[in-house]
Amino acid sequence: MSSVFALPGNPVSAYTCLHRYVLPGLAHASGLVARRPRMAVLAAPVTFKPSLTYFLPVRLSSGERGEQLATPDPSNTSGDLAGLVGTDGFVELPAEASEFPTGYVAPFWAWV
């Protein structure tokens, strides 16, 4: 069985989709166990109005109780690959909500 992946044209979108869909798909097709996302706690509130899943670049740190904190660090646009410098990966925020308070727990996908 062969797979075909179509990625968006903007570099941030393509890089994010590579990590969210392509690498897990290739691992599965190779008989490997795909890496699962870790969970992270938002360190600041996030508002995202479009009814779309939001892949938000974040920087990680440790909280007082050892929890993994995700500080939002959105890129300028999906064409601004340099905007990802200093980020550790992205959190996946569901389309069903538009307000995500500080403390919201979300799947975190690492760049490496």
Secondary-structure blueprint:
Blueprint (H helix, E strand, L loop, with lengths): L10 H19 L8 E5 L3 E2 L6 E9 L5 E5 L16 E5 L5 E2 L4 E6 L2
Parallel strand pairs: 1-4
Antiparallel strand pairs: 1-7, 2-6, 3-4, 3-5, 5-7
> Could you describe the largest sheet, including whether it forms a barrel?
5 strands, mixed, barrel
CATH topology of the domain at 37-110: Beta-clip
Q: Give the low-confidence spans.
A: none
CA gyration radius, whole angstroms: 15 Å
Helix content: 10-25%
The CATH C-level name of the domain at 37-110 is: Mainly Beta
- The amount of beta strand, in percent, is 25-35%
The structural class is alpha+beta
Number of strands: 7
- The name of the CATH architecture of the domain at 37-110 is Beta Barrel
The CATH fourth-level homologous superfamily of the domain at 37-110:
MoeA, C-terminal, domain IV
Keywords:
7 strands, five-stranded mixed beta barrel, two-stranded antiparallel sheet, 112 residues
What report would you give on this structure?
The chain has a domain at about 35-110: Beta Barrel (Beta-clip). The chain is built from 1 helix and 7 strands. The mean pLDDT is about 95. It has one helix at about 10-30, and strands at about 40, 45, 55-60, 70, 90-95, 100, 105-110. It has about 110 residues and is of the alpha+beta class.
